[in-house]
Amino acid sequence: MAEMTKKSLVLTFGTAGNKEISLTITKPNDTLTSADVTAAMDRIIASNAYGDGDQATQKVSAKYVMQQVDTIFSI
Hints:
Strand content: 35-45%
Strand order of the largest sheet: 2-1-3
Radius of gyration: 16 Å
Largest sheet: 3 strands, antiparallel
Oligomer: single chain
Number of strands: 3
């Protein structure tokens, strides 16, 4: 039986160096729309604030990742 389900939002960006970098947001707001996420990704790209020497230059994907945690044994 599942004890806990964790939901994260993973934003993936392309860089000028043809690499992909991802930003994971834990506990995202459940009311986010595709337009909200797209606009946020555009703002991240425009700010040049994300990327270590190889800045994010394009949106690749945005997806919710669900993780189910089941405890097998606990003291």
